[in-house]
Write the structure tokens for this entry.
Amino acid sequence: MPDFEYCNPIRTKVIPSIRDPQIVRLDDRYYLTGTLPPYWEGPNPGVRLWSSDDLLNWEDEGLLIDAAAVPDDAWYKERFWAPEIHVARGMYFLTFNCRNARDRFPHSVGIARASDIRGPYEIISLDAPLIERANDAHLFTDDDGRHYIAYASYFFICAQEIRLPECRLTGRPWLMSRNDTTGWDSGNIDTVPWDRVGVEGPFMIKRRGKYYLWYSSW
């Protein structure tokens, strides 16, 4: 890949202000997805994909999930947050979390799959969420070829094995991390841990036999 220079923020008319960005590199091209505005109120358009050769100039690849085409009574209707694409077994797996306030369905994790990163994607969790009351799902493939899904559940980050390409959970979930509540009763903000409120956004890699888990908090 050629060298390039940049200065944040990278402004482009093609990409609006997004949150929770995630980039996948395939050969010499990058593919980006993320949370589209509006983030809290108003009709979220769904899940969109962009591509680039240099991380500077981006091309709109269209909607992977079009919220306008989703039935009103589907559990996955609003707030398509933190989408991620994972490549495994020659296929592309899209995780996302959303809700349906009309039916009082809380934020939960959905999953879809495709044979091309640009789609079309088949939503596997069509009738019910893959994981209820969870956010920010992240897929990880270990060296032995087994697949896992990490996700946030308000105060916890959990993981569970998942079979791909079936997108079927197996075994029991386990706790990987949780927020630190020590010092809650002290009354002194300086003694309260920075991640006291909640944890989310897990992302994991493995290097030289060790696992590294990133997460966000507030």
The CA atoms of residues 73 and 102 lie 8 Å apart. The two ends are 36 Å apart (CA to CA). The chain has no helices and 14 strands. The mean pLDDT is 90.
